[in-house]
Amino acid sequence: VLHVQLSSSGQPVRKTTTAYNKWNKVEEQVITDETGSVIEKTSFHYNTENDLLEETQVDKSGAVIRRTVYTYDHKGMPLSRKIYNEKGELIYSRDYINEYWETADSP
Q1: What sign has the CA pseudo-torsion 17, 20, 25, 27?
Q2: Does the pLDDT value for residue 61 go beyond 80?
Q3: Nearest 5°: phi and psi at 84?
Q4: φ and ψ at 96, to 5 degrees?
Q5: How far, in Å, are 47, 58, 79, 99 from residue 50 at the CA level?
Q6: H or E stretch including 51?
């Protein structure tokens, strides 16, 4: 999928190309400038259950800008989201609490 951002004169300024995997999940997004040079690229990695495990953003030289890591519980519900900066330092962390109740119908 291609998304083009135009200037006020109608010239292309930025292009975002999005690639999907066979399960229709975003696999990669590449942002290029008007000359076609890569500005930024983001890769998305999933587990066998199609849960997003990691997003990695790199700049035009391939250096990591930001990395986001996700974890999930045994039912595929989110447990945590952690964002790291270009130095690998944790800059954001969010933990989720998932509660499950047994019912009379539960095996």
Answers
A1: negative
A2: yes
A3: -120, 145
A4: -115, 145
A5: 5, 22, 15, 22
A6: none
In sequence order, the β-bridge partners of residue 64 are 58
The tokens describing 97, both together, are 């609490």
d(CA 88, CA 42) in angstroms, rounded, equals 16
What does the chain come to in residues? 107
Q: What is the pLDDT of residues 83-92, one digit of tens each?
A: 999 999 999 9
28 in Cβ contact with 38 (< 8 Å): no
Q: Copy the structure tokens of residue 51.
A: 């849960």
Q: Give how far Cα 77 sits from Cα of 43, 53, 71, Å.
A: 22, 12, 9
Q: What is the value of pTM for the model shown?
A: 0.81
Q: Which of 22, 53, 26 is nearest to 41 (CA)?
A: 26
Structure tokens at 77: 């519900």
